[in-house]
Specification:
Blueprint lengths: L2 H4 L14 H25 L6
Length: 51
Amino acid sequence: MTITYLVAPEAILPALKVNSEKQALQELAARAHQQAGAAVARRSVNGVRMV
């Protein structure tokens, strides 16, 4: 099993620059929301509905 099985390569943020833990969590949450939205859109196009 490779790490890409668990984490999508586009979800890695190697140059994330923040000033606080709170800001880091906000940035990660925003990125996760963006990735989840893209995944739902891709699945919708393929005719699979996620709930």
